[in-house]
Amino acid sequence: MSITPRSGSSYFLSHGGYEASISSIGASLRELTHQGRHLVHTFDMDEVRPAYKGATLAPWPNRIIDGRYRIDGQELQLPLSEPKRGHALHGLALWLDFVPEDVGPDFAVLLATIEPQTGYPFRVEVRTTYRLGEDGLTTTVELHNVGAGTAPAGASTHSYLVAGGGQIDEWTLESPAQKLMHAHGARLLPGSVVSVEEVAGAFDFREARRIGEMEIDHAFTDVFGDRGAATVTLTTPDGSGVGMTWGADAPWVQIFTSDQPGIEWDRQAVAVEPMTCAPDAFNSGLDLAWLEPGERLETTQRIFAITA
Protein backbone atom coordinates (compact mmCIF):
# COMPACT_ATOMS: atom_id res chain seq x y z
CA MET A 1 0.00 0.00 0.00
CA SER A 2 1.41 3.38 -0.98
CA ILE A 3 1.41 6.03 1.72
CA THR A 4 0.85 9.66 0.81
CA PRO A 5 3.78 11.84 1.95
CA ARG A 6 3.07 14.03 4.95
CA SER A 7 3.13 17.16 2.78
CA GLY A 8 0.41 15.64 0.60
CA SER A 9 0.38 14.89 -3.11
CA SER A 10 3.10 16.55 -5.19
CA TYR A 11 2.91 18.36 -8.51
CA PHE A 12 6.13 18.96 -10.42
CA LEU A 13 6.28 21.87 -12.86
CA SER A 14 8.95 22.84 -15.37
CA HIS A 15 9.42 25.64 -17.89
CA GLY A 16 12.68 26.88 -19.34
CA GLY A 17 15.21 27.14 -16.54
CA TYR A 18 12.56 27.07 -13.79
CA GLU A 19 11.33 24.04 -11.87
CA ALA A 20 8.80 23.95 -9.04
CA SER A 21 7.30 21.41 -6.66
CA ILE A 22 3.85 22.04 -5.19
CA SER A 23 2.44 20.11 -2.20
CA SER A 24 -1.30 19.64 -1.86
CA ILE A 25 -1.49 20.31 1.89
CA GLY A 26 -2.14 24.03 2.05
CA ALA A 27 -1.45 24.27 -1.72
CA SER A 28 2.14 24.97 -0.66
CA LEU A 29 5.12 25.94 -2.79
CA ARG A 30 7.62 23.34 -1.57
CA GLU A 31 10.49 24.07 -3.95
CA LEU A 32 11.40 26.55 -6.70
CA THR A 33 14.67 26.60 -8.58
CA HIS A 34 16.15 28.45 -11.53
CA GLN A 35 18.92 26.68 -13.40
CA GLY A 36 19.38 24.54 -10.30
CA ARG A 37 19.59 27.48 -7.86
CA HIS A 38 17.06 27.57 -5.03
CA LEU A 39 14.79 30.62 -4.94
CA VAL A 40 12.71 29.61 -1.89
CA HIS A 41 13.59 27.70 1.25
CA THR A 42 12.42 24.16 0.71
CA PHE A 43 11.24 21.32 2.93
CA ASP A 44 11.17 17.55 2.50
CA MET A 45 8.30 15.93 0.68
CA ASP A 46 7.62 13.57 3.61
CA GLU A 47 7.77 16.34 6.21
CA VAL A 48 5.05 18.23 8.02
CA ARG A 49 5.44 21.68 6.45
CA PRO A 50 7.41 23.84 8.92
CA ALA A 51 6.85 27.54 9.61
CA TYR A 52 4.14 27.98 6.97
CA LYS A 53 6.69 27.54 4.16
CA GLY A 54 5.02 28.34 0.85
CA ALA A 55 1.48 27.95 2.21
CA THR A 56 -1.69 29.55 0.87
CA LEU A 57 -3.05 31.94 3.52
CA ALA A 58 -6.84 32.27 3.52
CA PRO A 59 -9.37 33.55 4.49
CA TRP A 60 -7.01 35.91 6.27
CA PRO A 61 -3.24 36.44 6.29
CA ASN A 62 -1.21 37.35 9.36
CA ARG A 63 -2.83 37.54 12.82
CA ILE A 64 -6.25 38.00 14.31
CA ILE A 65 -5.49 39.19 17.83
CA ASP A 66 -6.75 36.76 20.48
CA GLY A 67 -8.59 35.01 17.65
CA ARG A 68 -11.64 37.20 18.31
CA TYR A 69 -13.67 39.52 16.11
CA ARG A 70 -17.25 40.75 15.87
CA ILE A 71 -19.84 40.63 13.08
CA ASP A 72 -23.24 42.25 13.51
CA GLY A 73 -22.72 42.48 17.26
CA GLN A 74 -21.83 38.81 17.63
CA GLU A 75 -18.37 37.89 18.93
CA LEU A 76 -16.73 35.01 17.10
CA GLN A 77 -13.79 32.98 18.43
CA LEU A 78 -11.27 31.31 16.14
CA PRO A 79 -8.84 28.55 17.14
CA LEU A 80 -5.59 29.98 18.53
CA SER A 81 -3.17 28.54 16.00
CA GLU A 82 -0.33 30.70 17.38
CA PRO A 83 -0.61 29.60 21.04
CA LYS A 84 2.59 31.26 22.29
CA ARG A 85 1.24 34.68 21.31
CA GLY A 86 -2.43 33.81 21.69
CA HIS A 87 -3.55 34.64 18.13
CA ALA A 88 -5.27 33.03 15.16
CA LEU A 89 -2.54 32.95 12.53
CA HIS A 90 -2.64 32.73 8.74
CA GLY A 91 -6.14 31.48 8.13
CA LEU A 92 -7.95 28.15 7.87
CA ALA A 93 -6.66 26.70 4.59
CA LEU A 94 -3.21 25.81 5.96
CA TRP A 95 -3.88 22.12 6.55
CA LEU A 96 -6.58 21.47 3.95
CA ASP A 97 -5.69 18.91 1.29
CA PHE A 98 -6.23 20.77 -1.98
CA VAL A 99 -7.39 18.68 -4.93
CA PRO A 100 -6.25 19.20 -8.53
CA GLU A 101 -8.70 21.05 -10.75
CA ASP A 102 -6.33 21.23 -13.71
CA VAL A 103 -2.66 20.26 -14.05
CA GLY A 104 -0.17 20.51 -16.90
CA PRO A 105 3.62 20.39 -17.40
CA ASP A 106 4.07 24.00 -16.28
CA PHE A 107 0.94 24.75 -14.21
CA ALA A 108 -1.26 23.41 -11.43
CA VAL A 109 -4.67 24.63 -10.30
CA LEU A 110 -5.54 23.36 -6.80
CA LEU A 111 -8.87 23.71 -5.04
CA ALA A 112 -10.17 23.39 -1.46
CA THR A 113 -13.21 24.58 0.45
CA ILE A 114 -13.26 26.19 3.88
CA GLU A 115 -16.48 24.89 5.40
CA PRO A 116 -18.60 26.92 7.85
CA GLN A 117 -17.38 26.49 11.43
CA THR A 118 -17.77 28.01 14.86
CA GLY A 119 -15.33 30.89 14.40
CA TYR A 120 -15.93 31.42 10.67
CA PRO A 121 -19.51 30.52 9.69
CA PHE A 122 -18.96 30.98 5.94
CA ARG A 123 -18.28 28.64 3.02
CA VAL A 124 -15.37 29.93 0.96
CA GLU A 125 -13.75 28.13 -1.95
CA VAL A 126 -10.00 28.67 -2.28
CA ARG A 127 -8.31 28.19 -5.64
CA THR A 128 -4.52 28.48 -5.90
CA THR A 129 -2.93 28.51 -9.35
CA TYR A 130 0.80 28.07 -9.93
CA ARG A 131 2.14 28.76 -13.42
CA LEU A 132 5.75 28.76 -14.62
CA GLY A 133 6.90 30.94 -17.48
CA GLU A 134 10.07 32.48 -18.84
CA ASP A 135 9.64 35.26 -16.26
CA GLY A 136 9.32 32.99 -13.21
CA LEU A 137 6.54 31.49 -11.11
CA THR A 138 3.20 33.30 -11.05
CA THR A 139 0.85 32.42 -8.19
CA THR A 140 -2.80 33.44 -8.04
CA VAL A 141 -4.99 32.91 -4.98
CA GLU A 142 -8.73 33.28 -5.49
CA LEU A 143 -11.35 33.26 -2.75
CA HIS A 144 -14.97 32.65 -3.78
CA ASN A 145 -17.88 32.97 -1.37
CA VAL A 146 -19.98 29.94 -2.29
CA GLY A 147 -22.17 30.06 0.81
CA ALA A 148 -24.63 32.32 2.56
CA GLY A 149 -23.81 35.55 4.37
CA THR A 150 -21.23 38.25 3.72
CA ALA A 151 -17.81 36.77 4.46
CA PRO A 152 -14.77 38.77 5.67
CA ALA A 153 -11.81 37.75 3.55
CA GLY A 154 -8.13 38.31 2.91
CA ALA A 155 -5.35 36.29 1.28
CA SER A 156 -1.62 35.90 0.82
CA THR A 157 1.09 33.28 0.44
CA HIS A 158 4.03 32.59 2.72
CA SER A 159 7.09 32.26 0.50
CA TYR A 160 10.53 32.26 2.16
CA LEU A 161 12.77 33.76 -0.52
CA VAL A 162 16.40 32.69 -0.86
CA ALA A 163 18.98 34.88 -2.60
CA GLY A 164 21.88 32.48 -2.08
CA GLY A 165 23.54 30.18 0.40
CA GLY A 166 24.26 30.89 4.04
CA GLN A 167 22.67 33.48 6.28
CA ILE A 168 20.94 36.64 5.16
CA ASP A 169 23.24 39.18 6.85
CA GLU A 170 25.26 39.86 3.69
CA TRP A 171 22.22 40.02 1.44
CA THR A 172 20.89 43.31 0.10
CA LEU A 173 17.18 44.06 0.47
CA GLU A 174 15.23 46.54 -1.63
CA SER A 175 11.57 47.30 -0.89
CA PRO A 176 9.46 50.23 -2.11
CA ALA A 177 7.39 50.40 1.11
CA GLN A 178 6.95 53.93 2.45
CA LYS A 179 5.02 53.03 5.61
CA LEU A 180 4.99 50.29 8.22
CA MET A 181 2.69 49.14 10.98
CA HIS A 182 4.25 49.10 14.42
CA ALA A 183 4.39 45.62 15.97
CA HIS A 184 4.35 45.95 19.76
CA GLY A 185 5.90 43.61 22.30
CA ALA A 186 6.47 39.88 22.23
CA ARG A 187 2.91 39.34 20.97
CA LEU A 188 3.52 41.56 17.91
CA LEU A 189 0.33 43.51 18.52
CA PRO A 190 -0.45 45.76 15.54
CA GLY A 191 -0.24 49.47 16.23
CA SER A 192 -0.14 52.73 14.34
CA VAL A 193 0.94 53.07 10.73
CA VAL A 194 3.90 55.41 10.33
CA SER A 195 6.37 56.48 7.68
CA VAL A 196 9.49 54.33 7.47
CA GLU A 197 11.41 57.58 8.03
CA GLU A 198 9.73 58.07 11.44
CA VAL A 199 11.55 55.07 12.91
CA ALA A 200 15.00 56.58 12.32
CA GLY A 201 15.05 55.05 8.86
CA ALA A 202 15.72 51.61 10.32
CA PHE A 203 13.06 50.02 8.11
CA ASP A 204 13.61 52.18 5.05
CA PHE A 205 14.79 49.93 2.23
CA ARG A 206 13.62 52.09 -0.66
CA GLU A 207 17.27 52.25 -1.61
CA ALA A 208 18.83 48.81 -1.59
CA ARG A 209 21.03 48.17 1.44
CA ARG A 210 22.55 45.27 3.36
CA ILE A 211 20.32 43.58 5.92
CA GLY A 212 23.15 43.02 8.39
CA GLU A 213 21.99 41.96 11.85
CA MET A 214 18.60 43.65 11.52
CA GLU A 215 15.52 41.67 12.58
CA ILE A 216 12.33 42.39 10.65
CA ASP A 217 8.86 40.97 11.29
CA HIS A 218 6.62 43.85 10.23
CA ALA A 219 3.77 44.68 7.90
CA PHE A 220 4.53 47.41 5.37
CA THR A 221 2.19 49.42 3.17
CA ASP A 222 2.16 52.31 0.69
CA VAL A 223 4.19 50.10 -1.62
CA PHE A 224 3.16 51.35 -5.05
CA GLY A 225 3.94 55.06 -5.20
CA ASP A 226 3.06 56.20 -8.71
CA ARG A 227 3.53 52.70 -10.09
CA GLY A 228 0.94 49.97 -10.49
CA ALA A 229 3.15 47.23 -9.12
CA ALA A 230 5.52 46.64 -6.21
CA THR A 231 8.77 44.67 -6.30
CA VAL A 232 10.94 43.40 -3.45
CA THR A 233 14.40 42.06 -4.27
CA LEU A 234 17.09 40.18 -2.35
CA THR A 235 20.60 39.94 -3.77
CA THR A 236 23.92 38.48 -2.68
CA PRO A 237 27.23 40.38 -2.92
CA ASP A 238 27.83 38.94 -6.41
CA GLY A 239 24.55 40.46 -7.67
CA SER A 240 22.51 37.28 -8.05
CA GLY A 241 19.32 36.73 -6.10
CA VAL A 242 15.54 36.58 -6.18
CA GLY A 243 12.65 38.99 -6.48
CA MET A 244 8.90 39.11 -6.02
CA THR A 245 6.48 41.45 -7.76
CA TRP A 246 2.74 42.00 -7.34
CA GLY A 247 -0.06 44.42 -8.16
CA ALA A 248 -2.60 46.69 -6.47
CA ASP A 249 -4.69 43.76 -5.21
CA ALA A 250 -2.21 43.44 -2.30
CA PRO A 251 -1.52 46.85 -0.68
CA TRP A 252 0.33 45.30 2.27
CA VAL A 253 3.40 43.10 2.58
CA GLN A 254 4.79 41.28 5.60
CA ILE A 255 8.58 40.93 5.60
CA PHE A 256 10.15 38.49 8.06
CA THR A 257 13.86 37.79 8.35
CA SER A 258 13.18 34.24 9.64
CA ASP A 259 14.74 34.87 13.04
CA GLN A 260 14.26 31.50 14.70
CA PRO A 261 17.16 30.80 17.08
CA GLY A 262 17.85 27.13 17.61
CA ILE A 263 16.36 26.14 14.26
CA GLU A 264 18.77 24.90 11.59
CA TRP A 265 17.68 27.45 9.00
CA ASP A 266 17.61 30.48 11.30
CA ARG A 267 18.13 33.65 9.17
CA GLN A 268 18.66 31.70 5.97
CA ALA A 269 15.63 33.12 4.13
CA VAL A 270 13.38 36.18 4.08
CA ALA A 271 9.62 35.69 4.01
CA VAL A 272 7.86 38.13 1.68
CA GLU A 273 4.07 37.95 1.94
CA PRO A 274 2.00 40.37 -0.19
CA MET A 275 -1.33 40.71 1.65
CA THR A 276 -4.73 41.92 0.49
CA CYS A 277 -5.38 43.37 3.96
CA ALA A 278 -3.58 44.50 7.10
CA PRO A 279 -2.79 42.36 10.15
CA ASP A 280 -5.86 41.93 12.38
CA ALA A 281 -8.04 43.26 9.56
CA PHE A 282 -11.05 41.31 10.86
CA ASN A 283 -11.02 43.88 13.71
CA SER A 284 -9.50 47.01 12.16
CA GLY A 285 -11.16 46.64 8.76
CA LEU A 286 -8.01 47.93 7.03
CA ASP A 287 -8.37 46.87 3.38
CA LEU A 288 -10.54 43.91 4.41
CA ALA A 289 -12.75 42.46 1.67
CA TRP A 290 -16.39 41.65 2.43
CA LEU A 291 -17.51 39.03 -0.05
CA GLU A 292 -21.20 38.82 -0.81
CA PRO A 293 -22.48 35.38 -1.88
CA GLY A 294 -20.98 34.67 -5.30
CA GLU A 295 -18.29 37.36 -5.05
CA ARG A 296 -14.56 36.69 -5.42
CA LEU A 297 -11.27 38.11 -4.14
CA GLU A 298 -8.12 37.52 -6.17
CA THR A 299 -4.44 38.30 -5.66
CA THR A 300 -1.45 37.50 -7.90
CA GLN A 301 2.31 37.61 -7.40
CA ARG A 302 5.40 36.46 -9.28
CA ILE A 303 8.75 35.14 -8.04
CA PHE A 304 11.69 35.51 -10.40
CA ALA A 305 15.43 34.84 -10.45
CA ILE A 306 17.97 37.64 -10.57
CA THR A 307 21.16 36.68 -12.38
CA ALA A 308 24.50 38.37 -11.86
Can you tell me about this structure?
It is a single chain. By secondary structure, the chain is mainly β. It has a single domain (10-306), classed as Beta-galactosidase, Chain A, domain 5 (Distorted Sandwich). Helix content is 1%, strand content 46%. It has 1 helix and 27 strands. A hairpin with a 4-residue loop joins strand 18 and strand 19 (189-195).
**CATH fold-level assignment:** Beta-galactosidase, Chain A, domain 5
Derived from helix and strand composition plus strand pairing, the structural class reads mainly beta
Tally of DSSP β-strands: 27
Q: What characteristic shape results from the CA principal axes? A: globular
**pLDDT < 50 runs, ≥5 residues:** none
Quick take:
With 308 residues, the protein is an all-beta fold. The chain is 1% helix and 46% strand. The strands form seven sheets. Strands 10-11-12-13-27-23-22-17-20 form a nine-stranded antiparallel sheet, with no helix packed on it. The chain has a six-stranded antiparallel sheet with strand order 16-25-24-21-18-19, with no helix packed on it. Strands 1-2-3-4 form a four-stranded antiparallel sheet, with no helix packed on it.
